[in-house]
Amino acid sequence: MINKLRRRFLGAAALLMAGGGLAQGQTVQGFVHEQSSEDGYVWPTDTTVLKKLDAWQDQKFGVLFHFGLYSVPGIVESWSICSEDVDWITRKENLPYDKYKEWYWNLKDSLNPTEFNPAEWVRIMDDAGMKYMIFTTKHHDGFCTFDSKLTDFTIANGPMAGSGKENVAKEVFDAFRDKGFMIGCYFSKPDWHCEWFWNPEFATPNRHINYKKARHPEWWKNYQDFTAGQLGELLGGEYGKFDILWLDGGWITGDEIGLDSILADARSGGHPGLISVDRSIRGRNENYQTPERGIPEKQLPYPWESCITLSNDWGWVPDAPFKSPAKVIGMLAEITAKGGALLLGVGPTPQGTIEPEVEKRLHEIGNWLRANGEAIYETRPTPVYNDGLTWFTGSKDGKTLYAIYALPEGEEMPATIEWSGNLPKGKMTLLDGNKSLKYKTTADGRVTVTLPKGLPKMPLAIKFTPAK
Ligand code: GLC
């Protein structure tokens, strides 16, 4: 089984070069985590993990919610309390660092999402055509959106206490699970609120622990126990079954928190096949790689996912500029053709809602996927995967190919499109409306497709049978 699944994936991509770096120019925040190197992928040996990875590779499109204290003022997630001098970390002016941190910690008394209704989140993401979800249970600031008993620093202790919905993470996971989404738990290994990580005896100059482990082994041990304890809470059953454990904050490794035994317990307990994403830590516990805010240059011969924000930020910020549906669809086509999945970042508002503008854009993406999803979902990469603006995907059995022409936003639809390689035979159809298309091929392997007039100015997807 392992070999079969492995072969299927490798078969599609191994002949290709194993990819270069990330596409340039999309970063606002910068790559906080370097992506782990491409030769470092370690295939899982547990067949249930491999099976789940294969099922996950059918999903293609998911949502990553960032919701926490930073949502209240609408600022960069957590990072403003980290004393690193880089342009994407900004703070309120005229507040000394210590006072700023105090103000930030106290946001816990203002996070009161009175309109929080997870069924609405599900409705909107389902309508967008998303199939899996990941939710921040704890970001680097240490604030928990789940009802941890190991700290008071939780949403359940704030203004929401007693509302019946105060265990926000549980509400979110349950609602999405009911709708059949694959469920992912985001958890930051670093915790800047925990005294065993940033100890109050010392200043906090950067993202790392602010003491020497060798001098304070007991502090470090307390931090390890606390972290393993919180993961134990999340994986202990109260939050239901998880498909993905998405561990952020790669400056602490899974090994440092005893991830092997946490995973072994989880997989033999309530989470069979749990996919471990110890992101940016290459090796056995990074079951898929997570390039951030960018798309790898080439196909990669192992499971991967690009996490990319719909606006410029992970969390909600006021008046955010959002990417257009055409842009997101173009990214989804490119990522799918390269063998990955798109995890789109959406930040719920401090009231606990999804902004109407976000809903509108997601709905348009969903409309496109309703007509063209066959070219995306459950496909696998095909060796000749790109020519210009056209991205190719294939059915699992390789008998059908899809060409997605990613018309950029604002451009006119051309009368014809052309590509080399992937020669069709027989009938060719436009997925939207199932119209048959006229095409010509030349002896040197060029295909020219005539497009019907009056098509909407959006990416389009074509289905055909490969000539050989
Ligand atoms: C980065 C950032 C973090 C964010 C994550 C989402 O790793 O450190 O703030 O949550 O990206 O992908």
SSE arrangement:
Layout: H1 2-13, H2 47-56, E1 61-65, H3 97-105, H4 118-127, E2 132-138, H5 168-178, E3 182-188, H6 217-235, E4 244-248, H7 259-268, E5 275-278, E6 304-309, H8 325-337, E7 340-346, H9 356-372, E8 386-387, E9 390-394, E10 401-405, E11 416-420, E12 424-430, E13 435-436, E14 438-441, E15 446-450, E16 460-466
The major β-sheet equals: 7 strands, parallel
Tell me what portion of residues adopts beta-strand conformation.
15-25%
Task: List the bound ligands.
Answer: alpha-D-glucopyranose
Mean pLDDT: 92
Distance linking N and C termini: 27 Å
Rg, alpha carbons: 23 Å
Assign an overall shape.
globular
Low-confidence stretches: 1-33
Number of helices: 9
Structural class estimated from helices and strands:
alpha/beta
Helix content: 10-25%
Widest sheet: strand ordering = 5-4-3-2-1-7-6
Number of strands: 16
What string, H for helix and E for strand, traces the elements in order?
A: HHEHHEHEHEHEEHEHEEEEEEEEE
Descriptors for this entry?
binds alpha-D-glucopyranose; disordered N terminus; 468 residues; 16 strands; six-stranded antiparallel sheet; alpha/beta
Describe this structure in words.
With 468 residues, the chain is of the alpha/beta class. Helix content is 24%, strand content 18%. It contains nine helices and 16 strands. It has helices spanning 2-13, 47-56, 97-105, 118-127, 168-178, 217-235, 259-268, 325-337, 356-372, and strands at 61-65, 132-138, 182-188, 244-248, 275-278, 304-309, 340-346, 386-387, 390-394, 401-405, 416-420, 424-430, 435-436, 438-441, 446-450, 460-466. The chain has a seven-stranded parallel beta sheet. Strand 4 (244-248), helix 7 and strand 5 (275-278) form a beta-alpha-beta unit. Helix 4 (118-127) crosses helix 5 (168-178) and helix 8 crosses helix 9. The radius of gyration is 23 Å and the shape is globular. Bound molecules: alpha-D-glucopyranose (GLC). The site of alpha-D-glucopyranose (GLC) has 9 residues, from loops.
